[in-house]
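Ex. 9. Protein: ABC transporter permease.
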Amino acid sequence: MVRSSSLILRAERRLTYRKRVRRFFSPLPVPALGWLIALPALAFLLAFLVCPLLSVLRLGGVHFGVWTEPYFLARLAWTLEQAGLTVLLGALIAWPLGYLLARHRVPGKLALLRLLLLPFVTPTLVAVLGLTALLGPRGWLTQLSGINLSQGPALIIVGNLFFNLPIMLRLAYGGFARVPPSLIGAARTLGASSTRAAVTVALPLAAPGLGAGAILVFLYSALSFALPLTLGGERYATLEVEIYTLTAYELNLPDASALILGQLLIALAATLTYTRLVGGAVIAAPRHLPRPRGGAALLLYGLLGLTLLICFSPLAAVALRSVLGEHGLTLAFWHGLIAPDTDPPLSLMLGNTLRFAGLTLIGAVLLGASHALGAYLSRSRPLDALSLLPLMLSPVSVGVGYLLSYPGWAAQLYLLIAAYTLIASPLITRSVLPALRALPLRALEAARTLGAGPLTAWRTVALPLVWPSLRGGAALSLATVLGEFGATLVLTRPEWTTLSTGLYERLGRPGAQNLGEACALATLLLALALGAFSVLDGGEGEVA
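Predicted structure tokens for ABC transporter permease:
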């Protein structure tokens, strides 16, 4: 009964939407207008994603026989296994915690949900340093407990949770927050316990948000590059690491192309399912919530403490390691960064990082916002899914594709900025699109009735409502680009050294001083990411 009513209501809303938007806009059909607005973003994807990928496949050929070799089949199995295990462990933590946060009043809840985006955009090398400082062979927790997680795959799983648990929690919270409290109250009135009401009523209704979070975490874990590269070694290499090895070291493009295609098919299926789940969600209005009590409070704060431990202890470990030497507190590592003979100098690394991030942000906002507006107006799932295409491919393969497709631009800075923009623009789209879907069309119609033109109505009514999500997406993009690492390995030049590449170089050098300086650079990157969220007020938009 609830299901059929929901379908009828959704159909009525869709028809109403079509009529209103047709009346609001010009003689152009709404879907055509959406595709037209998204055309610059689609042209960018064609030039800097599709064409480079086709160049790799065309020049290297495709050796499909690679999928019959036991070694690569084992790499595929491990890639899927570690991604699936990350989703399972994340669901055990994020789903009950998301339900409890959505059903109870917790002080500082919104601030916590915004702060939890910080691990998601933390540069991977920063996370690697933090995890190693805690759980590595000489890590603090390893020395206390005697358990060395670096000898197995557990450290990779913990790293995946560090990055992806916040996203899974936010989407779970959004899914449960949309469940009408009256339905749960009715189940309780009919004699269901709080646990049974959550499982039989709230869980099915929140399933699209939960499924979207699970698929997104699976994609991010399966396509992770720097984490398995630095923590996994040869034994626990994923497909992404194998693609990098075959492309960059062995120049074996036929085998790499086959792996890229297989990975693309897996990611494409997951992405289409994801866009189907998140489409058309409506955010519930705020409501008064009770404080957690008894067992609910114990479970809520226990899961919350575990989440904070997973997501923030590596960051704290990096900051501490940057000022802790063998004999206690020291500033020697920071002094080493600003020494006159430092190569490359800190001013060059910091200047390049800020310059590249600023240029990227401009392009990412323009392309990401136009793609979101086009997907909103057209209501096209393929157009929606195309915004996720950059997240489905190896950045290393795309970087190599740039060199093959545009050899004359190999020494030009705008090719590197294009790679950065490709990484950053999907985050803008995924943040702005939910805000557009939640726009009250009645307010736009009222502005038109009062004499405002279409552009004026959008500028005075729609833009202020979408602005917080746009700022949140910009903060996510900026923080991500500040520590970008994968594409930079292929496209960088010595004079383009950034904080992340300088960090990577120091990790490759022996000695406690180099490790300490790497932690200092990681702390600086972390401070820049925090600054991006503070300036742009990140996290207000819902990423979907």
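Check your answer against this statement. Residues 26-60+344-544 form a domain with the MetI-like fold fold (CATH 1.10.3720.10).
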